[in-house]
Each structure stands twice: as structure tokens, then as C-alpha cells.
Amino acid sequence: MIHKLKNIPKEDWIKYIIIMVATLLLCQNFLQMHYSSDTYVLYSLGYMEYPSKYFLLDGRLISTVVCYLAGILNIPIKAYIIGMDFIGIIFVGLSICTVVKLLEKLIKPKSNILKLSIICASFLLILNQFTLEYLLFPESAIMCMGLFMIIQAIRIMIENPKHKYLKIFICLLTAGISYQGLLNIFPTLAILFYLVKEIKDERPYKVKEKEFFIDMIKLAILVLMALGICIALVKIGTKALNSEQDRRMHLMTIEAVRLRGETVMEYMNELWNECMAMLPKHTNTIVLIISTLLIIALRPKKEYFLQYILILIMAFSICIVPMFMFNTGVCGRVNVPLTMLWGVSIIVLLTLISEKPEKKIISKIIYTYAIVSFLINSIFIMQNITEHIAANRVDENTGATINYLVKKYEEETGNTVTRFSFMYDRNPQQYAVGIKPMQSLTERKFACSWCIKAAVNFYCNKDLKYTYMPNEIRERFKKIDYKEFSEEQIILEGDTLYMLVY
């Protein structure tokens, strides 16, 4: 291992250090205390109870072990969150470095501008807007380690070492028990890197096509095996913990399928057209149109163009099909292949142009396209993480106000608040006024049913017990519909805090 590190050229060391530093700079706002809905629940349940409520039920064994270990070592949660994010960012940076190394090995770039464009495309492929959710939650390091294992599976696929398929399976299974949603990244990346390899391979296309077809079948079997084990672990965990959790969609009639289809189209509109507010509307469509036109302008072999279309179909299918099987909702972290298509398209373009150096004008356009795309993506990454921190500040202000009202009430009445109840107003809002609607990244934690009590407990430094809300209080709340937080949404009576969630 040390011998291999010593053999890395100085130029590559400098390049990898720059990539790691750039990754840290882009994600630096995660290196402060920040909160997802899960963070409040972790504070409420603690290291030892949290895994059994969430990780074990989802078959996420590595996250379970790490969480238990943090509890045994009594690591402060603040240090745990920041430390896990730092490790996660390192894994993201290492993933980008690996992709750059693989692409340079396949494409063999001769010009510095092509090398720079490959780095830019690798950032777009790995550190895109939906990837940010991997860094959002307390188990961020594990999710990003899973991403790194997917990239290692791709590396093994390309380098073709001894026991290749066994090693790929181990990588996929490790990624799966880190976070099952990571497995849907592999097919898109596998086809992409095979396409790059085929474009640069001088052997007859029929030979390459046969090799591609056979390898894809083998890899598909490995993915299904890893997914099957993950599903089995979920069932075992659910049964062992006597949980009634079931995230599957039970579509028993044609009408149910039709209705689910309408919901899925709404989800896809939010994910693809709206970009979950993480990019300007229709960015994905515009990028796809520009990329396709540039690919056509390069006049590649029709087989290569069809394989590019196959990547697009695979990315969409692998995101849409699970929506009919599981209640995934609009979720960036399980739909990363959609935002990977920007990087995928540019990598295909760079591979094609490397074979046609005579097309100087198109080359300049493609290089400019790659660099500008990287800059746009980077700007929005920093903006979106900053927006997450801003959403946290809104929650902190809400929590501080609730805590003030509780303390004031307890001092004036002598009553101690020990119970909690809440209800939603007529039109509840998922996001605070002025905050971009980016799902988990900026959702109001005081609007998420599974963490409202945990958030109130956190800011009030209490362990409130949930109780039923009397009809009298419900009637008083029913007459009100708020657009922002107000003290009027809090009613304190006896030993109970009643809250109207706007």
C-alpha cells in the first residue's frame, strides 16, 4: 500500500490535494453544528435507542454499529455530527479523485484543458445537488462511505483484477448496508464507464458489444443479490423488533396503479423540472438538450449514441420504478442518478471529443461547457448548504421562543410542564417564509410530525410526554391559519404545552 502511494506522481498528488481542498471548501458549511429532523430525534432517543428505532428497521447495520460505538465512547452529539460530516466530505473527495483517475486512465488526455474538464465533470458526477443529502444526516460519514464503495466497485469493474465479481459484490453489499438507496447509482455509472471504455477501445464493435452485454448481466445479478440481502435484513429487523413498519406500496388494482402513476409523475416533476428548488427550473432539461445536440454535432457511431440514450433511460427507470414499489416520496438522496446525468453527459462529450481533436471549435465549446457547468453547480452547492443553515436558524428562533414561553409560564404559575400535544392548522407549511423549498435540506423541523416533540424537548431541555389534545383546545386552534410562527400558536395549561403547527 505504502509502495503504491510512493509511486503516485507529484503532479497527481497536487491534483488530488486540490480536489480534496475544493470539496472541503464547497461543503464547509456542513462543518458547523447543523440539524436535520433526524438530529433532534437522535438527541431525544440517545445513541443506544436511536438505532433500534430507525437503522435496524432499515437494515443499515454499519450505521447501527457506529451509533452504538459513539454511545459507548460517550461522544458529545455536536462533536459526532461535525466529525461525521468531516469524514463524509473526505469520502466524497476520495470518490471524485477515484473517478478522475479512472477517466484519465481511459481517455488518456493530452491537453491540460481536457484534464481540467475531466476534473470538472467528475465533480458534477459525484458532488451534485442531490448528493448534499448524504451530508445532511447524523450518519453522513456512513452514507458517503457507501458512495465511495460504489465508486470502488466501478474501479474494480474497469481494472478487472483477480476475483473481480466477488470484490464488486462486497463493495455493493457494503454500500447497501450503509444505505440501500446508494445501489441505484451503480447501474448508471457502470454503463457510463463501459461506454467510455468502448469509445476508446480499438477492437471491433461486435466484440465489445458482446463483452458489454455479458458483463451487464453479471453486474445486474450482483446488484440484485446485494439488494435482496438488504431487503432480507429489513424484514429480519422488522420482525425482531416487532415493528409494523411497512414502506412498500400495495398496488392491488389497476386503479391503484393509475393513481400511483399520477403521484409518481408529480414527484418526477418536482425532482426533474423543479430540481427541488436546488437549481433553476428546467435546468436538467436544458442541460440534456444542450448535451444531446453537442453529441449529435460530433457524429458518433450510432451504437455509442444509443448507449448514451440507454444511460438516460436507465437513470430515469431506476428512479421511477422504486416509486411504484416503495413509499419514497420526493427525496433527493434516492434519486441521485437524475442529477448525475449532467456529469454523465459531459463525460461522454469529453470522451468523444478526445477522439476528434480536429474539431477545434466544438472542442472549445465542450471545454467551456464543462467548466461553466462546474462553476454553476458549485455556486448552487454553496448557496443550498447556506440555505440549510438559514432554515436551521429559523427553527432555533422558534425553539428559543417556545422555551421562553414555557419558562415564563412555569415561573408565573408554579406549574411544571411535563406533557406535550400538537395539531396542524388548516394549511400547514413545510418551509418557513423566505426559505427555499429543498425537501429534507430546508424543511421546518417543527413541521415534521416524527420530530416535532423531539425538537421541542431539545430547545426546552425537557422530556415531555405526548398526550391527547382536548376538544376545547382543538376548537380554539381550528379558527386559526398562520403563515409564520407566532406566540398565539402556543397554549400552556396545567402541566401541558399545546402547539398549533402552521
Describe the fold and architecture.
With 502 residues, the protein is mainly α. It is 66% helix and 4% strand. It has 18 helices and four strands. α17 links the parallel β1 (419-424) and β2 (465-466). α8 (140-159) runs parallel beside α10.
Q: Which descriptors would you attach to this protein?
A:
single chain, 502 residues, mainly alpha, four-stranded mixed sheet, 4 strands, 66% helix, elongated
Summarize, please.
By secondary structure, the chain is mainly alpha-helical. Helix content is 66%, strand content 4%.
Task: Note the topology.
Layout: H1 2-6, H2 10-26, H3 37-45, H4 50-53, H5 61-72, H6 77-107, H7 112-126, H8 140-159, H9 164-178, H10 185-200, H11 205-240, H12 254-273, H13 283-297, H14 302-325, H15 336-354, H16 360-413, E1 419-424, H17 452-460, E2 465-466, H18 471-478, E3 490-493, E4 496-501
Parallel strand pairs: 1-2, 1-4
Antiparallel strand pairs: 3-4
Q: What is the arithmetic mean of pLDDT?
A: 94
Shape, per Cα inertia axes:
elongated
| Residue runs with pLDDT of under 50 for 5 or more positions | none
The count of strands amounts to: 4
The main sheet comes to:
4 strands, mixed
Oligomer: single chain
Order of helices and strands: HHHHHHHHHHHHHHHHEHEHEE
Through-space gap between termini: 56 Å
Which structural class fits the helix and strand makeup?
mainly alpha
Percentage of β-strand residues: under 5%
- Biggest sheet, spatial arrangement of strands: 2-1-4-3
Number of helices: 18
Name the helicity range: 55-70%
Q: Give me the Rg, rounded.
A: 25 Å
